[in-house]
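BUG: 3D viewer hangs when loading the predicted structure for this chain

Environment: internal workstation, default settings.
Expected: structure renders.
Actual: progress bar stalls at 90%.

Input used:
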Amino acid sequence: MTIHPSGPDRRRGPFRAGERVQLTDVKGRKYTTMLTTEGYFQSSRGRLRHTDIIGRHEGSVIDTDDGHRLLALRPLMTDYVLSMPRGATPIYPKDAARIISIADVFPGARVIEAGLGSGALTLSLLAAVGDEGHVTSVERREDFAEIAIANVESWYGDVIPPWTVHLGDLTDVMDDMPDGSVDHVLLDMLAPWENLDGAMRILRPGGVLLAYVATTTQLSRAAEEIRRTFSFTEVEASETVVRTWHLEGLAVRPDHRMVGHTGFLLTARRLAPMSEPLLEKRRPAKLAYSDTFPWDDPSLAPISEQEMSAKRLRKVLRDVRQRTRIEQTGSAHGSEGDEQVDKHDNPS
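Structure tokens produced before the viewer hung:
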């Protein structure tokens, strides 16, 4: 039995068993939990049965058994990304939004992304390309792919825009794609320069190549390797920093916390065949280029993302499988104790 409706109706109407709700207390702390017919929510702000929420509309303020008040809303995609189970560090919402913008991911676009991670960027890509586009995701790790697929299916339900997931190496996937068949190539990987040949071949003229990297050494090498192909133009880099503000009457000031550096975005445009990039006339800085680039020093090689422990990964896989059962039935099926609650603080 399917509890959730399909398509946009999943985001409308009263709360239903089998879907997630975000509860916010008076101090701005947010808690995300799955609603079940027999479940209850419990925190320092009191206890609340899920049946007190099911059937109410979004934006309802509900009293707990201890007299505290909680605001009930469906989480936005940004909230969902920060609280969803993950097998890899996600691309944060601020970066995903920037990627959609600077890469110009339009409705109907054909996009290939590698790697898939926990599916955070994929959620935004699918929303951007719509039903007329197509997203191809490539992931080497089967366990990460299972988590990402579960996260995407949990968010979109039965109506997911066209999407294909490949397990394996990006090079093998690109080898099977026709020349000039892709509008965007998005690389979230340790060494994006290793896949430039395939990206050049499958990108249409004017298509966008985007690499998401964590360190300045990776950023520098990726940019120089892209330039050395003489097949791309407008190589540009940026990072996104978000700072929220405190608003209370005339007390208007920046918040003490902010979302700072998470990664660099490097973009380039594919040139037409037989064309060469324009060369800038200004001189580079004297020490910009040297006989030995820093990435030739093995001690400065980028370090891969820390491996998640096998125990932690098994827990994440259990969480996403249990969430799928709840969404399909509206019941926890006798799971032990309270429903799992994911908590994240409001940055403000």
